[in-house]
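Tutorial, part two.
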Amino acid sequence: MCNQAVGLIQGILEEAGIATVSVSLLAEVTRKVKPPRALFVPFPLGYPLGKPQDAVLQRKIIEETLKLLERTDLPVLEAFREGPQQACP
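Running the prediction step on this input gives:
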């Protein structure tokens, strides 16, 4: 899904009182759109949760993303930095 479209939709939902968070593969686009909350991951397009079949890594990404829902100092763009970088195919 388009990072720009998701960020704009997040803004609309937040204005309606619905908290949102997203995973972003393109930090430069996300910074320009300024969604309320986003976690930037260092993986190639098509792999927002990292290496396939790596349930431990995927769970960490999801948990860190959901933790951003607690933040109220918007906009928040955090980078995922968990251990050594996982190579994706």
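Strands lie at 22-24, 37-40, 76-79. In part three we will examine how such features are distributed along the chain.
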